[in-house]
Amino acid sequence: MRKTLVLATLLAISGLSATATPGITQSRQKPRPASPTAPAQPGVVLPSGRGSQASLEYRQVERAGRDIARAREDSYRVSYLARQVSSSQANELLPIAQQIMERAESNFRGGQYFEASEQAKAAAAIYDAAENLYEGELGYVVGKKGPSGPSRSYIEAPQRAQERIARTEAEIQYYRSNDNTVRQLLDRAKMLVANAATPAANASAIPVTNTYNFAYLAQNRAADRLLRAAMHLIAAERGF
Questions:
Q1: Which one-letter DSSP state was computed for residue 16?
Q2: What is the pTM of this model?
Q3: What mean pLDDT do residues 43-61 have?
Q4: How many Å apart are CA 175 and CA 21, to the nearest integer?
């Protein structure tokens, strides 16, 4: 099923359809909602020939298509959640993620598969951050199997966010990143960490399922995800 999804993404980005491609059979999966696509542009030419170079390029195409497909799935999920709960901070992240997705799809069409893959991962991380902020308003984790309590990644988020702020700042300086979105994500992450409600002094004695404590964890995890997105964009900018 994953291979079918990746193939569908490749065809959608390149402006082709499964029915018009010889040898491609229709998937028996239920049709997904149509995703917004950029204006029609020249199709993607998959690498041909033999040898390690063609094999490497094909893997890059497949990886980029898979990352874009995952980011699209995240966008559907978070868009649905946005209609159920209100969070101005989360709402502000959605257009940023969409802009990065458009850059990823454009690079994919242009044959810049590594950049497309990293940008798609960045968009997915921002959607994840938005979801965390919506979860902070709800007071629980929105899991695939239903609401649940915070996992280890939530509990460790305050420490991880602080560590990743330092690492992101170091990478920006070392690689001399000129991507304004990277700095924007860093600033937003810092703001989330600074404004996160500090747990009570006796928080260790209070269950993390407490709404007050969960909001603190969710906000820090959102910051961590924004910093992950920034680092993916830095990787896309430097090309490795």
A1: -
A2: 0.76
A3: 68
A4: 42
